[in-house]
């Protein structure tokens, strides 16, 4: 450090007389400061110095030690990763899924009753999309007269249903929303037999094939026909199959050939799936097999073909759920059952709100604007308000089931195991690899039922002692509560969906 003396004053502060010495012997205005000496900062070793040090034995040993430690650490991490990969359970490969396997199909047979024709369907697509529907099945829409094959024109839309440009508009908007559109080309849908007389099948099949090519060129995503057993007896059935399925090879959206069968056994349905080349068979097994044991046996027979199987309660006949599920509780029960069975759930319009089936042969008028509440201060019909509220609740239940099925692999394409069946109840398990597992239990009978769940010996799979309630129609079985699986009592008309995790 060195002393520096500052004695320079501003000119205006300098004395006008001679220099005056301040007390203590210092000049007036002088200040002494301590200023540090210039310090030399360390800038590291020069290149020449580093070269001299680098070759010393100490640094050579240090570098070797660090190099060996690095490679040992790297090899240790590699070995650890290999052990984790080898010991980790292998993921099960995902099966091939098509759009009709990924969500429910929604049938609209009478477009006039649904929304005043095809133009109205386009306007309702936003509402339909909220249901997580993957496909619309429209029609039959073509013109014709009952039991008169000569009057059949499968390439002309009945004017009461709409126009061709209306259908094109529906297709464009539906595709933007990820919804596919299937046309029902059942020829004699107004008459006694779907394919007219037995001698007319081959001639009518030619018309169906030509119509399929026509509508598929307009970007329709599939074709549906009824009475599949009769249709497949035609010598030209394979041509229709080719028209639908081969024409779709260049289209990223695979095209669907869908057939409907009624009044046949589960074994016969399985044979049709194996031999006819259809992509999806919709049967009436759930409607005709009313006992729990029969229904479980049907699922036992068909579950391995679930990606080619459609389930519905009344859907094969274009009937609403409410025709057989006569109470709101039963409608919820069958919605839960259909969404969790191994196969594609197929619904008829209005099933999402519990729409009551029409009396006689007519179609019920679809009810819209159920969210619209009564005007404040206006007179309220309590019966109508209760019905509106119930429809909202049923639709919310439907939407929650549809959303759950779409994101849970066990419900979407999981393996099926039967657990219990009786005269009026059943239960089964859906499992996929390491995903959450689900147990469906339903009781459509008039008395309470104690379900004794039992899983057949299965390697790597067993039922836990308890499971969590995921969805329930019973107010006493709260969602997210835990129940014991050895004692499940279901009240009359109640259904429950249970969940438990994969534990390794």
Q: What features would you describe in this structure?
A:
This protein has 504 residues and is α/β, with parallel strands linked by helices. The model has no long low-confidence stretch (mean pLDDT 90). The protein is 33% helix and 20% strand. The chain is built from 15 helices and 20 strands. α7 packs parallel to α9, α10 packs parallel to α12 and α13 packs parallel to α14. A hairpin with a 2-residue loop joins β5 and β6. The strands form 5 sheets. The chain has an 8-stranded parallel barrel, surrounded by 5 helices. A 6-stranded antiparallel β-sheet has the order 13-14-15-20-17-18.
Features:
504 residues; 8-stranded parallel β-barrel; globular; 20% strand; 6-stranded antiparallel β-sheet; single chain; alpha/beta
- Count the strands? 20
Shape: globular
For the termini, the CA-CA separation is 76 Å
Can you give the mean pLDDT? 90
Largest sheet: 8 strands, parallel, barrel
Percent in helix: 25-40%
β-strand percent reads 15-25%
Write the layout of secondary structure elements.
Blueprint: E1 2-6, E2 31-35, H1 47-54, H2 57-87, E3 105-108, H3 111-115, H4 118-123, H5 125-129, E4 135-138, E5 142-145, E6 148-157, H6 164-176, E7 180-184, H7 201-217, E8 222-225, H8 228-231, H9 237-245, E9 256-260, H10 266-275, E10 280-282, H11 285-288, H12 292-302, E11 309-311, H13 328-340, E12 344-348, H14 382-407, H15 409-413, E13 415-421, E14 425-431, E15 437-443, E16 449-451, E17 466-472, E18 482-484, E19 488-490, E20 494-500
Parallel strand pairs: 3-4, 3-12, 4-7, 7-8, 8-9, 9-10, 10-11, 11-12
Antiparallel strand pairs: 1-2, 5-6, 13-14, 14-15, 15-20, 16-19, 17-18, 17-20
Helix pairs in contact: 7-9, 10-12, 13-14
């Amino acid at each position: 450090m060195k002393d520096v003396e500052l004695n320079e004053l501003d000119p205006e502060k300098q004395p006008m007389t001679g220099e005056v010495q301040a007390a203590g012997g210092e000049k007036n205005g002088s200040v002494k400061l301590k200023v540090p000496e210039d310090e030399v900062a360390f800038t590291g070793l020069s290149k020449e110095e580093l070269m001299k040090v680098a070759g010393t034995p100490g640094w050579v040993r240090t570098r070797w030690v660090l190099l060996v430690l690095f490679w040992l650490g790297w090899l240790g991490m590699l070995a650890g990763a290999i052990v984790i990969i080898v010991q980790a359970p292998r993921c099960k490969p995902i099966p091939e899924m098509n759009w009709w396997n990924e969500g429910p199909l929604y049938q609209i047979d009478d477009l006039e009753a649904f929304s005043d024709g095809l133009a109205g369907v386009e306007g309702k697509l936003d509402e339909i999309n909220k249901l997580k529907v993957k496909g619309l099945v429209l029609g039959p829409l073509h013109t014709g007269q009952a039991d008169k094959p000569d009057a059949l024109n499968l390439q002309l839309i009945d004017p009461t249903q709409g126009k061709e440009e209306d259908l094109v508009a529906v297709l464009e908007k539906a595709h933007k929303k990820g919804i596919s559109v299937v046309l029902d080309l059942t020829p004699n849908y107004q008459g006694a037999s779907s394919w007219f007389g037995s001698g007319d099948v081959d001639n009518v099949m030619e018309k169906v094939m030509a119509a399929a090519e026509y509508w598929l060129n307009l970007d329709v995503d599939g074709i549906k026909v009824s009475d599949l057993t009769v249709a497949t007896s035609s010598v030209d059935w394979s041509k229709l199959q080719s028209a639908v399925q081969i024409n779709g090879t260049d289209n990223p959206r695979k095209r669907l050939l869908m057939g409907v069968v009624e009044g046949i056994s589960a074994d016969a349905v399985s044979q049709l799936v194996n031999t006819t080349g259809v992509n999806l068979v919709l049967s009436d097994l759930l409607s005709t097999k009313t006992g729990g044991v029969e229904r479980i046996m049907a699922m036992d027979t068909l579950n391995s073909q679930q990606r080619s199987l459609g389930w519905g309660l009344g859907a094969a006949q274009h009937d609403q759920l409410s025709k057989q599920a006569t109470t709101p509780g039963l409608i919820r029960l069958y919605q839960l059952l259909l969404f969790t069975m191994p196969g594609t759930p197929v619904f008829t319009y209005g099933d999402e709100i519990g729409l009551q089936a029409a009396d006689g042969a007519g179609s019920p008028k679809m009810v819209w604007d159920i969210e619209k509440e009564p005007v404040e201060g206006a007179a309220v019909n309590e019966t109508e308000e209760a019905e509106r509220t119930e429809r909202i609740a049923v639709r919310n239940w439907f939407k929650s089931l549809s959303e759950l099925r779409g994101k849970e692999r066990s419900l979407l394409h999981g393996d099926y195991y039967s657990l219990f069946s009786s005269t009026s109840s059943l239960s089964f398990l859906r499992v996929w690899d390491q995903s959450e597992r689900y147990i469906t239990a339903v009781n459509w009978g008039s008395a309470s039922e104690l379900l004794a769940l039992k899983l057949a010996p299965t390697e790597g799979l067993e039922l836990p002692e308890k499971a969590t309630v995921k969805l329930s129609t019973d107010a006493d079985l709260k969602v997210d509560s835990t129940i014991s699986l050895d004692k499940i009592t279901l009240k009359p008309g109640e259904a429950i969906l249970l969940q438990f995790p994969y534990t390794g």
